[in-house]
Amino acid sequence: MGRVRHETYTCAAGCSVEATLKLIGGKWKGVILYRLLTEEVLRFNALRRLLPNITQRMLTNQLRELEADGLLARKIYPEVPPKVEYRLTDYGRTLAPVIQALKQWGDVHIENGVEWAENQAG
Protein backbone atom coordinates (compact mmCIF):
# COMPACT_ATOMS: atom_id res chain seq x y z
CA MET A 1 0.00 0.00 0.00
CA GLY A 2 1.43 3.38 -1.01
CA ARG A 3 1.87 6.41 1.16
CA VAL A 4 -1.14 8.69 1.46
CA ARG A 5 -0.30 12.32 0.81
CA HIS A 6 -2.50 15.16 1.91
CA GLU A 7 -4.48 16.98 -0.74
CA THR A 8 -4.33 20.12 1.39
CA TYR A 9 -2.00 21.03 4.21
CA THR A 10 -4.36 22.23 6.92
CA CYS A 11 -3.53 19.66 9.59
CA ALA A 12 -0.92 19.47 12.35
CA ALA A 13 2.35 21.39 12.31
CA GLY A 14 4.19 18.53 10.59
CA CYS A 15 2.19 19.02 7.41
CA SER A 16 4.35 21.99 6.42
CA VAL A 17 7.39 19.70 6.59
CA GLU A 18 5.57 17.18 4.40
CA ALA A 19 4.67 19.93 1.92
CA THR A 20 8.33 21.01 1.70
CA LEU A 21 9.59 17.45 1.31
CA LYS A 22 7.03 16.83 -1.42
CA LEU A 23 8.75 19.58 -3.43
CA ILE A 24 12.39 18.77 -2.67
CA GLY A 25 12.26 15.16 -1.50
CA GLY A 26 13.93 12.25 -3.21
CA LYS A 27 17.51 11.43 -3.96
CA TRP A 28 18.20 14.06 -6.64
CA LYS A 29 15.98 17.14 -6.29
CA GLY A 30 17.96 18.64 -3.41
CA VAL A 31 21.24 18.14 -5.26
CA ILE A 32 19.82 19.66 -8.46
CA LEU A 33 18.56 22.66 -6.49
CA TYR A 34 21.94 23.03 -4.76
CA ARG A 35 23.80 22.96 -8.08
CA LEU A 36 21.48 25.58 -9.56
CA LEU A 37 21.96 27.74 -6.46
CA THR A 38 25.72 27.63 -6.88
CA GLU A 39 25.96 27.72 -10.67
CA GLU A 40 22.99 30.02 -11.54
CA VAL A 41 22.33 28.57 -15.02
CA LEU A 42 23.11 25.05 -16.20
CA ARG A 43 22.47 23.11 -19.35
CA PHE A 44 21.24 19.52 -19.23
CA ASN A 45 24.61 17.95 -20.02
CA ALA A 46 26.36 20.15 -17.47
CA LEU A 47 23.96 18.83 -14.83
CA ARG A 48 24.68 15.27 -15.99
CA ARG A 49 28.42 15.88 -15.55
CA LEU A 50 27.86 17.31 -12.05
CA LEU A 51 25.66 14.33 -11.12
CA PRO A 52 27.47 11.36 -12.68
CA ASN A 53 25.34 8.70 -10.93
CA ILE A 54 21.97 9.97 -12.18
CA THR A 55 20.45 8.45 -15.29
CA GLN A 56 19.33 10.65 -18.15
CA ARG A 57 15.73 9.55 -17.62
CA MET A 58 15.81 10.32 -13.89
CA LEU A 59 17.37 13.74 -14.47
CA THR A 60 14.72 14.53 -17.08
CA ASN A 61 11.92 13.47 -14.71
CA GLN A 62 13.32 15.42 -11.76
CA LEU A 63 13.77 18.57 -13.85
CA ARG A 64 10.21 18.26 -15.17
CA GLU A 65 8.82 17.90 -11.64
CA LEU A 66 10.82 20.87 -10.36
CA GLU A 67 9.61 22.93 -13.32
CA ALA A 68 5.98 21.85 -12.80
CA ASP A 69 6.26 22.89 -9.14
CA GLY A 70 7.51 26.33 -10.20
CA LEU A 71 10.97 25.91 -8.66
CA LEU A 72 12.97 26.10 -11.87
CA ALA A 73 12.60 27.60 -15.29
CA ARG A 74 13.62 26.03 -18.57
CA LYS A 75 14.68 28.16 -21.51
CA ILE A 76 14.83 26.57 -24.95
CA TYR A 77 16.88 28.26 -27.67
CA PRO A 78 15.67 27.65 -31.25
CA GLU A 79 18.84 26.16 -32.70
CA VAL A 80 20.12 22.80 -33.86
CA PRO A 81 20.95 20.92 -31.77
CA PRO A 82 18.52 22.39 -29.25
CA LYS A 83 20.08 24.35 -26.41
CA VAL A 84 18.18 24.16 -23.12
CA GLU A 85 19.13 26.04 -19.96
CA TYR A 86 17.79 25.58 -16.44
CA ARG A 87 17.74 28.18 -13.69
CA LEU A 88 15.93 28.64 -10.41
CA THR A 89 12.85 30.82 -10.37
CA ASP A 90 12.45 33.47 -7.69
CA TYR A 91 10.22 30.96 -5.90
CA GLY A 92 12.92 28.31 -6.18
CA ARG A 93 15.49 30.71 -4.72
CA THR A 94 13.38 30.96 -1.55
CA LEU A 95 14.61 27.42 -0.82
CA ALA A 96 18.22 28.64 -0.55
CA PRO A 97 18.28 28.67 3.29
CA VAL A 98 16.77 25.17 3.40
CA ILE A 99 19.23 23.73 0.87
CA GLN A 100 22.19 25.48 2.53
CA ALA A 101 21.11 24.13 5.95
CA LEU A 102 20.94 20.61 4.49
CA LYS A 103 24.43 21.04 3.03
CA GLN A 104 25.85 22.32 6.32
CA TRP A 105 24.30 19.46 8.27
CA GLY A 106 25.56 17.00 5.67
CA ASP A 107 29.10 18.39 5.88
CA VAL A 108 29.12 17.86 9.65
CA HIS A 109 27.52 14.43 9.33
CA ILE A 110 30.09 13.28 6.77
CA GLU A 111 32.90 14.47 9.00
CA ASN A 112 31.53 13.42 12.42
CA GLY A 113 28.32 11.47 11.85
CA VAL A 114 29.42 7.94 12.65
CA GLU A 115 31.31 9.04 15.74
CA TRP A 116 28.37 11.15 16.95
CA ALA A 117 25.86 8.34 16.35
CA GLU A 118 28.04 5.87 18.29
CA ASN A 119 28.26 8.31 21.23
CA GLN A 120 24.46 8.72 21.27
CA ALA A 121 23.87 4.97 21.23
CA GLY A 122 26.31 4.21 24.00
UniProtKB/TrEMBL annotation:
Source species, please?
A: Verticiella sediminum
Domain spans labelled HTH hxlR-type:
15-114
Pfam hit, one: HxlR
Q: What name does UniProt use for this protein?
A: Helix-turn-helix transcriptional regulator
Keywords, sorted A to Z:
DNA-binding, Transcription, Transcription regulation
What Gene Ontology molecular function terms does this protein carry?
A: DNA binding
UniProt key word Cytoplasm = no
Q: Which PROSITE patterns match?
A: HTH_HXLR
